Amino acid sequence: MNRLFFQPHQAGLSKVEAAEHTLRNINPDVTFETHNYNITTMENFTHFMDRISHGGLEEGKPVDLVLSCVDNFEARMAINTACNELGQIWMESGVSENAVSGHIQLIIPGETACFACAPPLVVAANIDEKTLKREGVCAASLPTTMGVVAGLLVQNVLKYLLQFGTVSYYLGYNAMQDFFPSMAMKANPQCNDRYCRRQQEEYKKKEAERPKVEVVQEEEEVVVHEDNEWGIEVVSEVTDAELQAASGTAPDLPEGITVAYTIPAETAASGETVEETEQSLEELMAQMRKL
Amino acid sequence: MADDATRRAVSQIPLLKTHAGPRDRSLWPLRLKEEYQALIKFVEQNKEADNDWFRLESNADGTRWTGTCWFIHDLLRYEFRLEFDVPVTYPDTAPEVAVPELDGKTAKMYRGGKICLTEHFAPLWARNAPRFGLAHLMALGLGPWLAVEVPDLISKGLVVHKEGQRETAE
């Protein structure tokens, strides 16, 4: 995510500047605020925390969500520290050093695992590392992997903000085998980060105080009108018999995939066909014109 | 991990006791003292082993460190300035050591001269935090990096010896 916006004519600009220019051209109605600094230093970190807590859509309010698209462990830890302290919900994303796997992760301080709760997670590659690693070369870079992860991240953000679908707590992407493992990880009560531990306490307190909501089976009420002067009935456009005749066998598909429609094996000849004719094409055309 | 010599050197560096980073107003000064104690010990050990190879000092609050490191190759002494900031997440994450003069001369380096350490370093640091300190960073991070990169840079002609730094072997 952090380098996908660069275009050749932007050489010399910082990544955030190039990102702002490219994005502004795509949608000028978005508000941007850019800062280009190392968030792990003492002075910048204070400013960073301040912007999270006061840089919302309405200045002075906190932001709604933080998306981490940085490319190193230290920066992620710094973001984690800030969000734990501020109780800020955020999503972390990343692509592996060999560029053939990536992941997104939703972190709710106190509720889910924070970034420091466990050692860094690795999406299993199931490949012979020797085919990828070359001496003297540090890291690979595949914008395609990054594009996929960026898409997954933003999709998760939309689901979270607009409340549809299932928001993934952790979604991995194994590019070599096209495998997408997903899971959720609880917070670690022995996390190194004391703010994470504190957030866990607060979360437990809140959960205990919440009134138990009983799950009620909603019965769908059959709509009954008081009178039906005209005897209106609702029927299907197609009768059951017709539906049977029109369906063929559905192919054997794994879970999650189905066909849009089926075609029966035997097409019953149910109408008249055109007759044999001696007329030529030109004669038929002339006949048409005379009509 | 690194070779036996490095392992031996590291095992002799005293471990640190206080788990505090620069944002910890009450405990950071204590940690800073421990850092200096370990660094002084390490430099003394190096001198005794005839392998004195760096000096470091910090600003008043211990958040920014600068110094020099040197490397002897073919009887010649090569000197480089080094610097780093202590990150807010220290000591759980290690500082990123930079050798600005070598910026751009090797692939084992990030923009601004931050040295790229092997993939062994991060797990090793994570397993030993917070007992590892800046002295360990020097011994396990910068030391091995110089040992690999400097001879290579010299042989490629990217690092040239400055006049007046000739040093003969004892």
Automatic annotation (TrEMBL), chain A:
Recorded hits in Pfam families, A to Z, give: ThiF
> Which Gene3D superfamilies has this protein been placed in?
NAD(P)-binding Rossmann-like Domain
GO MF entry, a single one: metal ion binding
- Please tell me whether the keyword DNA damage is annotated for this protein: no
Superkingdom to which the source organism belongs: Eukaryota
Q: What are the UniProt keywords, alphabetically?
A: ATP-binding, Metal-binding, Nucleotide-binding, Ubl conjugation pathway, Zinc
Q: Which InterPro entries does the record associate with it?
A: ThiF/MoeB/HesA, ThiF_NAD_FAD-bd, Ubiquitin-activating_enz
GO BP, one annotated term: protein ufmylation
Q: Where is the THIF-type NAD/FAD binding fold domain?
A: 2-192
Q: Does the keyword DNA repair apply?
A: no
Among the entry's GO cellular component annotations, what is one? Answer: cytosol
Q: Which SUPFAM superfamilies match?
A: Activating enzymes of the ubiquitin-like proteins
Name the family the entry cites: Belongs to the ubiquitin-activating E1 family. UBA5 subfamily.
**What protein am I looking at?**
Ubiquitin-like modifier-activating enzyme 5
**Native organism:** Xyrichtys novacula (Pearly razorfish)
Automatic annotation (TrEMBL), chain B:
Q: Which InterPro entries would you find in this protein's record?
A: UBQ-conjugating_enzyme/RWD (IPR016135), Ufc1 (IPR014806)
Superkingdom assignment: Eukaryota
Annotated GO molecular function terms are: UFM1 conjugating enzyme activity
A Pfam cross-reference name: UFC1
Keywords of this entry: Ubl conjugation pathway
Residues of the active site are: C116
Q: Name one GO biological process term.
A: protein K69-linked ufmylation
User: Tell me, what does this protein do in biology?
Assistant: E2-like enzyme which specifically catalyzes the second step in ufmylation. Accepts the ubiquitin-like modifier UFM1 from the E1 enzyme UBA5 and forms an intermediate with UFM1 via a thioester linkage. Ufmylation is involved in various processes, such as ribosome recycling, response to DNA damage, interferon response or reticulophagy (also called ER-phagy).
For this entry, the protein name equals Ubiquitin-fold modifier-conjugating enzyme 1
